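Here is the promised in-class demo. Please do not try to memorize the tokens; focus on the logic of going from shape to residues.
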């Protein structure tokens, strides 16, 4: 990620189009936003158009407008336009975009179409673009224009040494949004999170941490906070399963209670009903666990 940071700094000071490559959820859009925020265009708009999204208009119109509809290019005037997944751009839209990048006027162009300097273009892709060019999915000339500045964002499994710091950073963001203190992560759980391959990358990691954080908050995030729905997922790293000791049943009981309270937003009556116990029993267990936690904190 040090090299990624260097490329971001260099790209921020240039005006060339930027191509950002990486797997789904790797943080490509975050890289684009960071470049925009550090660039001279920071006060201008940052507009994103998703080629794979369900739009109310044809993609060509969404990008370049039609009649009174300005389109994303016009909306990004003076700022940055990010095309999310460039290989999803259809042939007609590719031809118009290429004409703009080459400074050629279009017969049906809007007021911004012929002014390349008015918009900084960025694009993302999770595919190998040379292969997309070979298959005719992407115009070769467009690939040349976009490839002037290329930034490859590595997957989480390729930068495991960054994970502990990234996990703490994401936890801080989530807790700030929830107005709760940021918990520490016990070493055993951290090992488990680091060993997992994270095929969904940063997006999956954030969702996992959001799910693990109990509604009542916690000083330390432990294995017992891993919801049952994620135990099998994270257990594939072997850490969660191999490090369980004779208190496995107690851990599972606390995990089930934490998950039930999370699902029902702290409503103990509903949580107790799902768990098949009385509210009095649930309250007793919570008091016992709180006393045990407080006794461990007492010097």
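The designed amino acids, position by position:
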């Amino acid at each position: 990620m040090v090299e990624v940071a260097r490329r971001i700094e260099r790209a921020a000071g240039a005006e060339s189009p930027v191509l950002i490559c990486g797997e789904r959820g790797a943080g490509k859009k975050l890289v684009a936003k960071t470049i925009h925020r550090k660039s001279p265009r920071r006060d201008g708009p940052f507009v994103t158009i998703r080629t794979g999204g369900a739009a109310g208009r044809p993609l060509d119109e969404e990008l370049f407008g039609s009649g009174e509809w300005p389109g994303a290019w016009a909306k990004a005037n003076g700022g940055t336009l990010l095309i999310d997944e460039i290989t999803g751009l259809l042939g007609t839209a590719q031809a118009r975009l290429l004409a703009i990048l080459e400074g050629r006027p279009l017969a049906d162009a809007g007021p911004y179409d012929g002014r390349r300097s008015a918009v900084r273009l960025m694009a993302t892709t999770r595919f190998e673009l040379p292969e997309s060019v070979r298959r005719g999915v992407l115009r070769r000339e467009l690939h040349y224009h976009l490839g002037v500045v290329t930034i490859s964002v590595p997957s989480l499994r390729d930068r495991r040494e960054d994970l502990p710091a990234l996990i703490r950073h994401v936890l801080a963001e989530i807790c700030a949004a929830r107005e709760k203190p940021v918990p520490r992560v016990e070493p055993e759980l951290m090992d488990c999170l680091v060993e997992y391959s994270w095929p969904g990358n940063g997006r999956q990691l954030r969702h996992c941490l959001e799910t693990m954080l109990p509604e009542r908050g916690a000083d330390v995030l432990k294995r017992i906070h891993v919801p049952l729905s994620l135990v099998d997922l994270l257990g594939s790293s072997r850490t969660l399963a191999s490090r369980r000791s004779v208190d496995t049943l107690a851990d599972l009981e606390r995990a089930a209670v934490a998950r039930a309270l999370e699902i029902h937003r702290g409503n103990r009556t509903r949580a107790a009903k799902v768990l098949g116990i009385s509210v009095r029993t649930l309250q007793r267990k919570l008091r016992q666990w709180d006393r045990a936690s407080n006794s461990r904190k007492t010097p």
